[in-house]
Specification:
Blueprint lengths: L1 H15 L2 H22 L9 H29 L1 H7 L4 H22 L1 H10 L4 H26 L5 H14 L2 H9 L2 H10 L1 H9 L5 H24 L4
Length: 238
């Protein structure tokens, strides 16, 4: 655990010193603020954070790959990965440390949006449990997206390519599933619904805790973290 904590601190510092992280963070906050004013604070509409949660979830498909693109790709391009791999740390610890560092930065972004939730809860009658469930869903969804982005970052030394790969995989697991569900019949719709990560988040945005959605999002995180570890291990034999 000591190694993971050290690597987490190292990744968190690198993220906060990265200009792209501030660009992504500023863009995410500006757009979430726009969606809050445009879709939530509408006179006559039901007091609900669901439109904002849905919009934020879609933004993450592109925002998180930009946050994760430098994690391993930068190490590969600068040659520091070889030094890191000769240190007394395992590949699993490296991936977990980078995952935790990015997740802490992501949690910081989410925390800034709590101001919007507090405003709505203060001026409108609305169950706080529904808001809390939405944030739990965003946490689980962000973890799954971060794992995908880290996996993409282990595949190439080029950061832009890593971002495109991550966004491509996430688009396939979200928007493409919706397209395939409309294109095919009912049997195919069942399969695509099971693979659609945004579809599983939909229950959280409604304030519903679905244990199946929790298991699928956590399993997705574990699966892609496992792939990232294996991709990192494969570089030892090259």
């Amino acid at each position: 655990m000591g190694n993971v904590v050290t690597l987490t601190r190292r990744e968190l510092q690198a993220t906060f010193f990265s200009p792209i992280a501030y660009v992504v963070g500023a863009g995410f906050l500006l757009l979430s603020g726009y969606f809050f004013l445009h879709d939530v604070l509408v006179p006559g509409n039901e007091a609900s954070m669901r439109p904002l949660f849905d919009s934020m979830a879609k933004l993450l498909v592109f925002a998180i790959p930009l946050l994760t693109m430098r994690s391993l790709s930068e190490e590969l391009s600068t040659g520091t990965l070889e030094t890191l791999m000769t240190a007394p740390v395992t590949d699993t610890q490296v991936i977990l440390g980078k995952f935790a560092g990015i997740m802490l930065f992501y949690l910081t972004l989410l925390a800034t949006t709590l101001v919007q939730a507090a405003l709505l809860l203060h001026y409108a009658e609305m169950p706080w449990q529904a808001v809390a469930m939405g944030y739990i869903g965003l946490l689980l969804l962000g973890a799954a997206f971060t794992a995908v982005g880290l996996f993409a970052s282990t595949l190439t030394r080029y950061q832009i390519l890593a971002a495109l790969l991550g966004a491509g995989i996430l688009s396939a697991l979200t928007f493409m599933m919706d397209y395939l569900a409309e294109l095919r019949g009912d049997a195919w719709r069942v399969i695509t619904a099971g693979m659609n990560l945004l579809g599983h988040f939909d229950d959280f945005s409604k304030g519903i805790l679905d244990t199946r959605a929790v298991i699928i999002l956590i399993s997705t995180s574990v699966f892609f973290l496992f792939l990232a570890v294996k991709a990192l291990e494969s570089r030892r034999w090259r």
